[in-house]
Specification:
The structure holds two protein chains of two kinds. Chain A is of the alpha/beta class. Helices cover 36% and strands 27% of the residues of chain A. Chain A contains ten helices and ten strands. In chain A, the strands form two sheets. Chain A has a six-stranded mixed β-sheet, sandwiched between helices. Chain A has a four-stranded antiparallel β-sheet with strand order 2-1-4-5, with helices on one face. The two termini of chain A are 33 Å apart. The chains are: A alpha/beta, B mainly alpha.
Chain lengths: 251, 296
């Protein structure tokens, strides 16, 4: 079953044609990686799934994006905050709020109207456990999130995103600002979360894509060149451009 | 290809000129500090002798040649509070609007910014004149604390707007995106994340504006300040005395200027102390908010 479906998507920043006629289907509870050189449009495409590009003045979208069969850009359709409750996001740089560890994870619940303290406490614990962070922070839930290391902060951001139980998790180069050990932890986490959510991850790191993803899409100059099972992309790609990129001949 | 002939002695010359330059910078900085200390020292030297309990707690007496400056202290504090009530909410909300809501390149923001910049360049006496025309005459508030507070509030508005805007501008976009991505509305994002992060700097700006207000004479000249009003004001429609105006009066149009000189220095010293205390308070509040956020 398809979780996300993009139908002939074109996207413009002003006059710049950033995404050119992209159609793809992302199956439920799979991990899909977007790879490609800087500026190829993969992050832009990812940010369409939770309408993060709405914030950019002068941008324009053609085509349709369906999540669970529903057009998320349909006028008069879904409200953007409802969409984002269902489609979580983890960013390149860890961006915890200047609040306590607890309040960071509780934030998404609170801004969506949940007040039950006991429920929030339970959710926070579950989410931190889910992000493999509980044991490290359980004794200092009230300390500032800024006191954590970069890797811990990123796992906190994953816990924060998962706390409102989205069914899709978007990850925009989630490990590119982290050291190798933290990166390994984040990757492990992705593998554990795949049972609960559909994950779309943008990455510059091809080993990472091959390690964590079921399917991989290669983007180049605003086009999606090839999209297939990760195994195929990395062992036997059909397009020459893909072959060149994964073997490091350009990019 | 290796470079064989670097100019001889160039390194020594480089280090020497650096030393000289920094020497000059340091000297000038010290000079400024000296000047500031000289002013402060002079005021303390001339004013400290007059300050005692009577001076701080009693009204002027004997044609303002003796007694204290209590009504002027209270008047200045009231005007500061009044102008804060006028300028802070309006200024902070405008600053938020400018940075968070309005389109950055839109004509509305450009126009408002141009206006606030121009407003901050308007001489304070012009604010006084405007305040007199609008608040005192047209709206019929008379010479009053209300009219004075409104005039001073308008005067400090540009500073409050600008500092709010600048404080919010420096907050990384990623933090806002993080909040929005969790389904928070823009207002929730501003209220729960952006404002708390901007608070230390906003507070500093607010307090600086208070410091400025406390020393302004011209805007209250025609709108509020009383030459001599020994009892305390009983409502916001009363006039009041104020430290800077009192200082001006007893230095220029007093009954016995020679005898009043020490009082003038005492008044100046009290005014300076009030500003210093406020600045200290700003520092403490800033620290408090920063600690709460653990930004540092």
């Amino acid at each position: 079953m398809n979780k996300i479906e993009a139908i002939d998507v074109n996207f413009y920043y002003g006059d710049f044609h950033a995404l050119k006629g992209i159609s793809m289907e992302i199956p439920q509870n799979k991990v899909v990686a977007f790879i490609g050189p800087s500026g190829c449009g993969k992050s832009t495409f990812l940010r369409l799934f939770n309408r993060m590009n709405d914030l950019i003045p002068g941008s324009r979208l053609q085509g349709r994006i369906l999540i669970d069969g529903q057009d998320i850009y349909a006028p008069g359709g879904m409200e953007v905050d409802e969409l984002r409750k269902n489609v979580g996001m983890v960013f390149q740089r860890p961006n915890p709020f200047p609040k306590s560890i607890f309040d960071n994870v509780a934030y998404g619940l609170r801004v969506n109207g949940i007040k039950d303290k006991e429920f929030i406490r339970q959710r926070v614990e579950e989410s931190l456990r889910g992000a493999a962070l509980w044991d490290e922070v359980k004794d200092k839930l009230n300390s500032s999130a800024y006191a954590l290391s970069g890797g811990q902060q990123q796992r906190l951001c994953i816990a924060r995103a998962m706390a409102i139980s989205p069914s899709v998790l978007l990850m925009d180069e989630p490990a590119s600002a982290l050291d190798p050990i933290s990166t390994a932890k984040v990757e492990e986490l992705i593998c554990e979360l795949r049972n609960q959510v559909t994950i779309v991850i943008v990455t510059h790191n091809m080993q990472q894509a091959s390690r964590v993803s079921d399917k991989t899409a290669f983007f180049y100059m605003g086009e999606m060149i090839e999209y297939d099972d990760t195994k195929v992309i990395f062992t036997n790609p059909h397009k020459e451009a893909t072959q060149n990129y994964i073997t490091g001949r350009f990019g | 290809m290796a470079i064989e002939t670097f100019p001889k002695g160039y390194g020594a010359r480089k280090r020497r000129s650096q030393k000289t330059a920094f020497g000059i910078f340091r000297g000038l900085s010290l000079f400024i500090v000296l000047v500031l200390f000289a002013i402060l020292g002079f005021i303390i030297y001339r004013g400290a002798g007059v300050i005692d309990w009577t001076f701080l707690t009693e009204a002027p007496s004997d044609g303002m040649t003796s007694g204290g400056i209590f009504p002027a202290i209270i008047g200045t504090l009231l005007l500061m509070a009044g102008s804060a009530i006028v300028a802070f909410p309006v200024g902070i909300m405008s600053g938020i609007y400018m940075n968070e809501y309005a389109s950055k390149s839109g004509w509305a923001v450009k126009f408002i910014r141009l206006m606030t910049n121009n407003l901050s360049g308007v001489p304070s006496i012009v604010f006084g004149l405007f305040g007199m025309a609008l608040f005192v005459k047209y709206l019929g508030f008379g010479d009053s604390i209300l009219a004075g507070s409104l005039t001073l509030g308008l005067l400090s508005l540009p500073l409050v707007i600008r500092t709010t805007e600048e404080a919010l501008k420096d907050i990384p976009a990623g933090i806002r995106e993080g909040s929005l991505a969790l389904g928070a509305s823009k207002l929730q994002t501003i209220w729960k994340v952006v404002l708390p992060m901007g608070m230390p700097r906003i507070i500093t700006g607010l307090i600086l504006s208070l410091g400025r207000v406390s020393g302004e004479t011209a805007p209250i000249l025609f709108t509020c300040a009383a030459y001599f009003f020994p009892q305390l004001p009983s409502s916001i429609f009363d006039q009041c005395m104020a430290l800077p105006y009192h200082l001006y009066v007893i230095s220029t149009s007093g009954t016995d200027i020679e005898a009043q000189q020490p009082i003038a220095y005492g008044t100046a010293l009290v005014l300076i102390i009030i500003v210093l205390v406020i600045n200290l308070l700003a520092g403490v509040l800033r620290k408090y908010f920063e600690n709460r956020l653990k930004l540092k």
